[in-house]
Amino acid sequence: MVQSRPLPPIRKFDKLFGSIAKMKHYSAAISLIRQLDLLGISRDLVRSDNYTFNIAINCFCNLKRVDFGFSLLGKIMKLGYEPNTLTFNTLMRGLCIDGKLALAVRFFDEIVKKGFQPNLITYGTLINGLCKIGETRTAILFLKDMEQVGSCRPGIVVYSTIIDSLCKDKKVDEAFKTFSNMIEKGVTPNVVTYTSLIHGLCNLGLWKEVKRLLSEMAGRNVSPNAQTFNVLVDILCKQGMLKEAEEVLELMTQRGVEPDVFTYSALMNGYCLHGKVDVGRRVLDLMASEGCQPDVISYNILINGYSKSKRIEEALSCFRDIYQKGLIPDKFTYTTLMGGLCDVGRPLDALVFADEMKAHGLVIGLVTYSTLFRGLCKSQHIDEALALFKMIECSGLHADIMLYNILIDGLCKAGKVDSANGLYLSLPAKGLQPDICSYNTLIHGFCKEGRLKEATELFKKIEENGCVPNNCTYNVMLQGFLENNETEKGIELLQVMVDGGFSAINCKKNLLANLLSNDRLNHSLKVVLQNCLGIT
Prior knowledge:
Number of helices: 31
Number of strands: 0
């Protein structure tokens, strides 16, 4: 086209660029527009109602480079031309896509001050962006502004966006006020509006109001769609109302609305959450027989259900089914399966899946690593846990205090208290501060080995290091004294505990019973111990 003489009309170029952008080949569209610019026909691009430049701005915004979009705005103005409504709306959408809502609001105020008249799309874009980040209050201010501007009255999309956001904020009463105001303004609610309100009511367990609203929908000839039914099925299942969820599913099919993968998956999740994994499996089979193909989320639900029930072989079978169906396991699939393997004492198998997960380019987070560490330590695979810990350090991932605590606990239980103490001492250099769990675990480790001096020194350091001992701390220390025949120190600590409002309820009962017979125990402490032992 660029070699044709004379050049084709600019509208033909615009048609090409627009088509490429619609195919989401944003970088390609920008590259072609730049080629035209290099040919020295920038002014022609602007003369076409900014259409070409607007396409370029839209492409930059979709690539999350709204800054380049604003550079193009500057170029338009430098060439002496005025940007149009589409230009401003595109930039507004770009700021919202990029999560820069404060800048979007400021940009709106600036262009309005300069005489720009926002239209329905301008307001709608900004309100939608604000609601997505939970700034419903600010969005309502713009809604009121629209209601006052006669030339730009809000329609059903804007009202529905506000109502949905209020329901998500659990401000259902306010959502209904907006709903009533909308109807008074002559705007008719649609299925999206009603679905948002139903969702809000379901979350609050207001089922009578839900029924009333469904009746109102029928009175307005607004039919529930798949999303409406899905909301009902999902929340009924989560609240354990499985029979009612089945009734909604039956009503759904009676109304001619086809259940989708979300509907079936929500029902499966409900059964699995309440220990009925076999019924959940039957729902999966039913879904497939009805021509609705399960997705990876459907299988994840079953894998989670089987894992929680410690039916790990069936969970592994589901995992293999994912590949057989041409699906790809996601991060949740692997994490759930690894957790299930650890729970049944097979952490080494879980490590194999961790390697497979990384081979597929999935990032393992600290929560998953914590699950692996807990499983390895619980099964006394300390060497493997330490090797994994070194690998995490070498990978540049920064372990948090919870992960350190798991490893400290595992080392103590394996009788490697000195190694556990070494980890504890290394925390400040790693930029971490031990928490009360770190202290309790290590104190228990010292006490178990009869190293009361070190346990006592560590106990004294708790408050010095800005931490506060809790009931568990005192009970661990008390138990350590009593198990190592330091009865006098145990009595002294018990008095401190009573004075501080702590209880010895978590200490071993046989140790407390032996202490109760000690003559050096005063009456008030005897009463405390009797209460702990349930002696009246």
